[in-house]
Design a protein that fits this description.
- The complex is a heterodimer.
- Helix content of chain A is about 20%, strand content about 15%.
- Chain A is of the alpha+beta class.
- In chain A, the strands form three sheets. A five-stranded mixed sheet of chain A has the order 2-1-5-3-4, covered by helices on one side. Chain A has a three-stranded antiparallel sheet with strand order 6-7-10, with no helix packed on it. A two-stranded antiparallel sheet of chain A has the order 8-9.
- The mean pLDDT of chain A is about 95.
- By secondary structure, chain B is α/β, with parallel strands linked by helices.
- Chain B has five domains: about 55 residues, no CATH class; about 100 residues, Glutaredoxin, CATH 3.40.30; about 220 residues, NADH-ubiquinone oxidoreductase 51kDa subunit (Rossmann fold); about 70 residues, Ubiquitin-like (UB roll); about 80 residues, NADH-ubiquinone oxidoreductase 51kDa subunit, iron-sulphur binding domain (de novo design (two linked rop proteins), Up-down Bundle), CATH 1.20.1440.230.
- Helix content of chain B is about 40%, strand content about 10%.
- In chain B, the strands form three sheets. Chain B has a six-stranded mixed sheet. Chain B has a four-stranded mixed sheet with strand order 2-1-3-4, with helices on one face.
- In chain B, strand 3 and strand 4 form a beta hairpin.
- In chain B, helix 9 packs antiparallel against helix 10.
- The chains are: A alpha+beta, B alpha/beta.
- The interface between A and B is large, with 39 and 45 residues.
C-alpha cells in the first residue's frame, strides 16, 4: 500500500489502495459510513444515497467516489446525518414497513440504520402503496412492501447465480419495482432456488424463507446485540 | 400476417439485437396497439434477453402500454402553457362527452383520455397526441367534431389534415436560421480542413453546448477523439440529443422540421472530428410525425454522397440512424439517453466514466444538442473568427429561444447571446409580464425586477424555453404544475428524487387545498436542500428549482393560501367522507362533518 494513499474521514486517517472507493476504504478500516444499497461483494449501485458524504466541501456518494490522497471527507456530521434521517424517513413512507410484525426485525439493515441515526418517526405522510405479495414459490416468500430498490437481488442473481431472476424496471414512485423473470410475473415460474445467493442477499424483509420464521428470538438478533455502526469489520471484504 | 409473424419480422429486421429493444417495442406496439405478456416473452426469447429486463424496459416508458389501451388513445399535453390556453376545460368536456374518467379505458375499449408531459407545441396549444400523432390548437368546436369521429371509429388518417398541422412560427432569424449554406457546403469545408484543424476551429469559436449546461463542445469532441475504443466493437459514436423534453422548449422541433440538413451535416462534422462512422439521432417520441420526413432527408443525403462511404469523394465514411424515444423526460440526460439507445430503461449512469470515454455500447461517444450541431456548420463554413464575433465573450454565437405563454407572437426567436429578457419580451409582444420561466422548470424563474438580465452562460444560461407569465397568472400554480411534472418524470433510481419529487408534489397540493402552513414552506426548503445535494443526476438536483424560486420571488402567492396557523393537518375530516357520499348518493348536511377550524 502506497504510504501517500491516505485520506481524512472526520479527521481520522484512512489508508486506501488505488482504485478503492471511499466506502471500500472506510469499511476495510472499520469505520462506518451509513449505507443500504452498497454491499462489499458487488459493484456499487449508488441509488440509496445514504452514504452521501462531503468530499472537500462537495456532496458525493462515498460508494462511487474514488479515494484520492489528501481528500478531506466529512461523514458523521450533524448536517449529513440530518439528511440521512430524511432519506430514511423517505424509505419508511414510500413502502409499507411494519417492524413489529416483520420476520426480519433485528436483522434488518433499514431498521438498524434508522436506530443508528435516531430516526424517531416517519415524519412525512405515509404513501401506503399497493404492493402485492408473491407467495407462489414453494420455499420463498416475496413481500415487496418492504423493498428499498437496492437491486442487490438483481445483481446477486445475475452475477453469482447466473440466473437473472430479477430485474429493476418501471419508472418513478409508482412504477419502479422488481420485475420477475417469468411471463406470469410469479417467482414459482422461474428457476429461483432457496439456495441461490439472491435468496439471502436482501438487506430488508422482502425475500424470506418459508416455514422458518423467528428461529432466533427477537432480542437476540444481529442488531439487537450491537448497533450496525459497531459491526463494520464483519462486513469488510 | 399473424401477430407472431409480425413480431418475428420486426425483431429480425433489428437483427435480433436486444440493444434495439426500445425501437423493437415501439414498432410492435404501433402494429398491435399494446405489449401483451406473450409479446414481451416472444421478444425476450428472440433477442436472448431475460424476460424481466424486457418487461423492465417496457414499463419504464410512458408511451409503452403493458395493458390494452383505447383504440383511440388521447393524451393532452399538460405543460403550464397548455393549462393557460384552457386544456383542462377541454379535456374535462371531452371526458364528459365520452362518459369517461381520465386515465381509464372506456368499457368498450374504444377510447382513453389522459394527460402527458409537454409535447413541445407550446406556441400552438392546447396540444395533444392522438395515438401518438401530434395535434395542435384544440378548440371546443374541434373537440365536438373529434368526439364524433372517435365514436364513429373514423381512422385517424381520415381526420382533417389541418388538425395535425404544426407551424414553425419563426419570428426572428439571426446567423443560424438565416444561413445561406447549401447541403454539403459546411461538410466539404470541414473535410478540406481535416479533423484536427476542424477541431481547433470549434475550440477557437468557443462553441458551448446548447442543451443548457454550456460545456465546451471543442473539449467534448477532443476528449472523445482522444479516447480509445474498447475491444472487438471498438468505434466512436456521435449522438444527437433530440429528446427535447424540457417543458416550454420546441426549437429543436423547428430545426428538425426546416433545418434537418444543417443538423445532419453538423453530426457528420462531429463524426469527422471524433473519428466516428456512425451517428444516432435520438428523437423524442412526441415528434414521431417527423420520423418519415427525416428518413427521407437522410435518403436524399445518401443519394448526394453526403452520407455513406467516400463522402464527397474523400475517404470519410459516416451514416446516421434515427432512434425514437417513448415518453421519458429523463432521456434528455446524456447517459440516460445512451441507456435508452441500448434498449434499457433511461436511468442515468454513475459518472465517471463519462460518455466521451465510455458511452454508447461502452465506446467513446459525443452527445450533442441539435442546435449545437447545427451551429457547428456555421463554424465549418465561415470560420471561428467570424462566428466568435457574434454573441458575448463567454457565450459566442446565437441562441434560439422557444417563446410561449402570455405574449402576442409566440414562436421561435434567434438572438445573439447577451440579449436581455426585456428585449425578448418587447419583441414577442408581451405586456404586463410578471415573470419568465427561463430554460424550463429546471431553469430559473425570472421576476420583473430582473428583466434586464441577459441570456448568456455568464448570466442566464438556457436550454431555450422562455415561458411568459403576465400579472394575471398565479405563480404558485405555475410551480405546482412543474412539481407534478418532476414527480411524473423522476426515473425512480435514487431515493431523494424518487420520493422527494412526490413529497414536494403532495405538499404543493396540500397548500393548494388551503391546508398548508408556514411549517410546510420550511419543509419545502428542507427537501430542496436535500434533493439538490444528494440526487443522482440533474433532474433531482433541479426538481425543486421552480418551487424555490417562486417561494423566494412570489411568496404572497403561497402565503395567501396558508392558514394562519403554525400547524395544519393534511387530513381533512369532511373530505374523508367524500367517497361514502359518492357511494350513497347523499350530499345533505348530515353527510358532512365540520372541520374544527371552520366550526
Amino acid at each position: 500500500m502506497n504510504a501517500n494513499n491516505i485520506f481524512q474521514l472526520d479527521g481520522e486517517d484512512i489508508p486506501f489502495r488505488s482504485g478503492q472507493t471511499i466506502m471500500q476504504a472506510a469499511t476495510h478500516h472499520g469505520t462506518y459510513i451509513p449505507h443500504l444499497c452498497w454491499h462489499p461483494d458487488f459493484a456499487a449501485h449508488g441509488s440509496c444515497k445514504l452514504c452521501t458524504v462531503k468530499v472537500n466541501g462537495r456532496f458525493g456518494s462515498s460508494c462511487t467516489t474514488e479515494a484520492q490522497p489528501g481528500m478531506n471527507v466529512e461523514n458523521r456530521t450533524a448536517e449529513l446525518d440530518d439528511k440521512r434521517r430524511t432519506l430514511l424517513q423517505m424509505f419508511f413512507v414510500e413502502g409499507n414497513h411494519f417492524c413489529p410484525s416483520c420476520e426480519k426485525s433485528g436483522n434488518c439493515t433499514l431498521q438498524a440504520t434508522a436506530y443508528e441515526l435516531k430516526m424517531m418517526s416517519p415524519h412525512f405522510d405515509m404513501f401506503y402503496p399497493d404492493r402485492p405479495v408473491d407467495a407462489s414459490h414453494p420455499d420463498i416468500l416475496l413481500d415487496f412492501n418492504r423493498c428499498i430498490m437496492c437491486s442487490l437481488c438483481v445483481t446477486a442473481s445475475r452475477e453469482v447465480d447466473g440466473k437473472n431472476v430479477f430485474a429493476m424496471g418501471g419508472r418513478g414512485i409508482l412504477g419502479r419495482r422488481i420485475h420477475i423473470n417469468s411471463e406470469s410475473g410469479k417467482l414459482a415460474d422461474t428457476d429461483f432456488a432457496a439456495t441461490d445467493r439472491a435468496a439471502s442477499i436482501c438487506p430488508v424483509g422482502v425475500i424470506l424463507r418459508k416455514r422458518k420464521g423467528f428461529a432466533v428470538p427477537i432480542g437476540e438478533r444481529k442488531y439487537d446485540l450491537a448497533p450496525i455502526s459497531a459491526q463494520v469489520k464483519e462486513a469488510a471484504p | 400476417m399473424s401477430d407472431i409473424d409480425m413480431i418475428d419480422a420486426v425483431v429480425d429486421r433489428h437483427r435480433r439485437d436486444g440493444t434495439r429493444l426500445v425501437q423493437i417495442l415501439r414498432e410492435i406496439q404501433e402494429q398491435l396497439g399494446w405489449l401483451s405478456p406473450a409479446t414481451l416473452t416472444r421478444v425476450a426469447d428472440a433477442v436472448g434477453w431475460p424476460r424481466a429486463e424486457v418487461s423492465g424496459t417496457a414499463s419504464f416508458y410512458s408511451f409503452f402500454h403493458k395493458r390494452p389501451r383505447g383504440r383511440y388513445c388521447v393524451l393532452w399535453s399538460d405543460n403550464i402553457t397548455d393549462r393557460m390556453l384552457g386544456n383542462a376545460d377541454l379535456m374535462d368536456a371531452m371526458c364528459k362527452k365520452l362518459w369517461l374518467e381520465p386515465g381509464r379505458v372506456s368499457e368498450d375499449g374504444l377510447v382513453s383520455v389522459n394527460t402527458t408531459s409537454c409535447t413541445g407545441m407550446c406556441d400552438q396549444g392546447p396540444a395533444l397526441l392522438v395515438n401518438y400523432r401530434a395535434m395542435t390548437r384544440m378548440t371546443q368546436a374541434r373537440l365536438g367534431e373529434m368526439v364524433g369521429l372517435i365514436r364513429n371509429e373514423t381512422p385517424i388518417a381520415e381526420w382533417p389534415a389541418e388538425w395535425f398541422g404544426v407551424e414553425d412560427n419563426i419570428r426572428r432569424k439571426d446567423i443560424l436560421l438565416a444561413h445561406d449554406l447549401v447541403p454539403g457546403q459546411a461538410l466539404s469545408a470541414a473535410l478540406e480542413r481535416g479533423p484536427e484543424k476542424m477541431l481547433a476551429e470549434i475550440k477557437d469559436a468557443r462553441l458551448r453546448g446548447r442543451g443548457g449546461a454550456g460545456f465546451s463542445t471543442g473539449l467534448k469532441w477532443e476528449a472523445c477523439r482522444n479516447a480509445e475504443g474498447h475491444g472487438a466493437g471498438a468505434a466512436h459514436y456521435v449522438v444527437c440529443n433530440a429528446d427535447e423534453g424540457e417543458p416550454g422548449t420546441f426549437k429543436d422541433r423547428v430545426l428538425l422540421t426546416s433545418y434537418a440538413d444543417l443538423v445532419f451535416e453538423g453530426m457528420s462534422i462531429a463524426g469527422l472530428v471524433v473519428g466516428a462512422k456512425k451517428g444516432l439521432l435520438y428523437l423524442r417520441g412526441e415528434y414521431r410525425y417527423l420520423l418519415e420526413p427525416l428518413e427521407s432527408a437522410l435518403a436524399v443525403r445518401r443519394e448526394a454522397r453526403l452520407l455513406g462511404k467516400n463522402i464527397l469523394g474523400s475517404n470519410f465514411e459516416f451514416d446516421i440512424e434515427i432512434h425514437l424515444g417513448a415518453g421519458a423526460y429523463i432521456c434528455g440526460e446524456e447517459s440516460a439517453l445512451i441507456e435508452s439507445l441500448e434498449g434499457k430503461p433511461g436511468r442515468p449512469r454513475i459518472r465517471p466514466p463519462f460518455p466521451v470515454t465510455k458511452g454508447y455500447l461502452g465506446q467513446p461517444t459525443t452527445v450533442n444538442n441539435v442546435e449545437t450541431l447545427a451551429a457547428s456548420c456555421l463554424i465549418a463554413a465561415h470560420g471561428s473568427e467570424w462566428y466568435a464575433q457574434h454573441g458575448t465573450e463567454k457565450s459566442t454565437g446565437t441562441k434560439i429561444l422557444s417563446v410561449s405563454g402570455d405574449c402576442e407572437r409566440p414562436g421561435i426567436y434567434e438572438y445573439p447571446y447577451g440579449v436581455t429578457v426585456r428585449q425578448v419580451l418587447e419583441d414577442c409582444g408581451a405586456t404586463d409580464s410578471q415573470a419568465v420561466q427561463n430554460s424550463g422548470p429546471s431553469g430559473v424563474c425570472v421576476a420583473e425586477a430582473e428583466f434586464d438580465r441577459r441570456i448568456a452562460f455568464e448570466d442566464l444560461p438556457t436550454a431555450g424555453a422562455f415561458m411568459v407569465f403576465d400579472e394575471t397568472r398565479d405563480m404558485f400554480e405555475v410551480a405546482r404544475n412543474f412539481a407534478h411534472f418532476f414527480a411524473h418524470e423522476s426515473c425512480g433510481f435514487c431515493t431523494p428524487c424518487r420520493v422527494g419529487t412526490t413529497l414536494v408534489r403532495n405538499m404543493m397540493d396540500k397548500i393548494a387545498r388551503q391546508h398548508g402552513s408556514p411549517y410546510d414552506i420550511d419543509e419545502l426548503f428542507k427537501l430542496h436542500r436535500l434533493m439538490q445535494g444528494a440526487s443522482h443526476c440533474g433532474l433531482g438536483n433541479s426538481a425543486c428549482n421552480p418551487v424555490f424560486d417562486t417561494l423566494n420571488k412570489f411568496r404572497p402567492a403561497y402565503e395567501r393560501r396558508l392558514q394562519s396557523l403554525d400547524y395544519e393537518p393534511a387530513f381533512d375530516l369532511d373530505a374523508a367522507l367524500s367517497q361514502a357520499r359518492q357511494m350513497t348518493g347523499r350530499d345533505d348536511a348530515g353527510a358532512h362533518l365540520q372541520n374544527e377550524a371552520d366550526a
